[in-house]
């Protein structure tokens, strides 16, 4: 068995040397699959050689131990009968140890065969994976070759999404800017009408005295018109200065949070719109003032110099709804009657 192992080791070493030389000589001319196959075979042969060397060393150690035991037994024979018997016993046990070593070699051979089978299976699995990967690569290359040519779109400034979005926002802001001034002018007219009406009513006695002294309606109304005109002019100047300098900048700074590239925005003052707004404000306030003065100035001086009689009270529509009116206290009833008694104040409150 020992010589058989020596022969196998020698043959395996020669086979490995031959395979290594063949692999080195044909490295440039072999295909990748052939080179890979020979490399796998060389690795397997080296593993087999290492296994045989291990088994040979184990067998050599077993034989050396047996020889030592035989020598010791021989010494014991020379030394006496008891030693001879012990040596003979050890000699008898040596074949059993040798058989055990041979059994170990057989088991190792079985394990080697199993490992070789696993190696072949792993090799086959790797080949299958390589084939699948190669097929996937070829399919991907076919897809790349069959990809349609892209379509390019050239966009001018009017069709860039960010530009159109910014333009849409500015158009919306422009629409708001067209509606809000109407509301502001309406509120200004209502405030002017209420304020000037109260002022004229408080000074009705003075107006009656002036009319009795011979002052014309225009001269008397000029005082209140001039008051409204000066207030409107001062407010228009302050509004134009503050509005043209702050509101556009606040609006632009708000847009900068959304549009990152919005820098160094120049806001040009719109003189025409400022003059137009001031003119409309003057028309609204002076018109409201003239409307407030008209009713008082149309009365006679004698009537104006007397205190104005309060408006006559009358039943309102809510009083006809008995189940509601009966549950109101005195203050609530007075408030409801005043709402319908002074309709101009009611409208001013609702509109404001």
Descriptive report:
Helix 1 (2-25) runs antiparallel to helix 2 (32-79), helix 2 (32-79) runs antiparallel to helix 3 (81-145) and helix 4 runs antiparallel to helix 11. It contains eleven helices and no strands. By secondary structure, it is mainly alpha-helical. The protein starts with a helix and ends with a helix. It has three domains: 2-145, Up-down Bundle (Four Helix Bundle (Hemerythrin (Met), subunit A)), CATH 1.20.120; 168-309, no CATH class; 311-352, no CATH class. 81% of the residues lie in helices and 0% in strands.
What's the short version?
Keywords: Cell membrane, Coiled coil, Membrane, Transmembrane, Transmembrane helix. 81% of the residues lie in helices and 0% in strands.
What structural class results from the helix and strand content? mainly alpha
Helical content band: over 70%
Estimate the global geometry from the Cα principal axes: rod-shaped
**Helix run count:** 11
Count of discrete structural domains: 3
Q: Strand tally, please? A: 0
Uncertain residue ranges = none
Q: How large a portion of the residues is in β-strands, by DSSP E? A: under 5%
Q: What is the radius of gyration computed over CA atoms, rounded to a whole number of angstroms?
A: 59 Å
Spatial gap, N to C terminus: 118 Å
Q: Which class of the largest domain in CATH terms? A: Mainly Alpha
CATH architecture of the largest domain: Up-down Bundle
Helix/strand order: HHHHHHHHHHH
Named CATH topology of the largest domain: Four Helix Bundle (Hemerythrin (Met), subunit A)
Largest sheet: none
């Amino acid at each position: 068995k020992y010589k058989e192992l020596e022969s196998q080791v020698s043959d395996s070493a020669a086979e490995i040397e031959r395979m290594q030389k063949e692999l080195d000589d044909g490295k440039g001319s072999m295909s990748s699959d052939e080179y890979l196959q020979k490399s796998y075979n060389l690795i397997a042969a080296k593993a087999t050689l290492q296994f045989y060397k291990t088994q040979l060393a184990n067998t050599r150690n077993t034989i050396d131990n047996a020889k030592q035991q035989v020598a010791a037994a021989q010494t014991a024979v020379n030394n006496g009968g008891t030693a001879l018997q012990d040596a003979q016993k050890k000699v008898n046990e040596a074949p059993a140890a040798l058989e055990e070593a041979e059994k170990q070699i057989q088991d190792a051979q079985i394990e080697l065969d199993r490992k070789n089978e696993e190696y072949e299976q792993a090799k086959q699995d790797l080949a299958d994976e390589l084939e699948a990967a190669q097929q996937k690569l070829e399919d991907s290359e076919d897809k790349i070759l069959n990809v349609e040519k892209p379509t390019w779109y050239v966009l001018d400034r009017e069709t860039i999404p960010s530009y159109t979005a910014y333009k849409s926002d500015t158009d919306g802001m422009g629409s708001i800017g067209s509606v809000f001034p109407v509301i502001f002018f309406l509120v200004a007219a209502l405030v002017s009408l209420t304020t000037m009406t109260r002022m004229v009513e408080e000074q009705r006695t003075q107006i009656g005295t002036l009319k009795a002294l011979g002052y014309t309606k225009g001269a008397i109304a000029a005082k209140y018109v001039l008051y409204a005109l000066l207030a409107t002019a001062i407010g228009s100047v302050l509004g134009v200065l503050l509005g043209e300098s702050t509101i556009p900048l606040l609006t632009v700074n708000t847009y900068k949070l959304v549009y990152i590239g919005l820098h160094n925005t120049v806001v040009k003052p719109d003189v025409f719109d400022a003059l137009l707004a001031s003119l409309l404000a003057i028309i609204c306030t002076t018109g409201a003032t003239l409307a407030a003065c008209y009713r008082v100035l149309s009365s006679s001086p004698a009537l104006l110099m007397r205190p104005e009689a309060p408006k006559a009270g009358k039943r309102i529509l809510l009083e006809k709804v008995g189940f509601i009116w009966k549950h109101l206290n005195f203050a609530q009833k007075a408030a409801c009657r005043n709402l319908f008694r002074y309709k101009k104040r009611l409208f001013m409150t609702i509109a404001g």
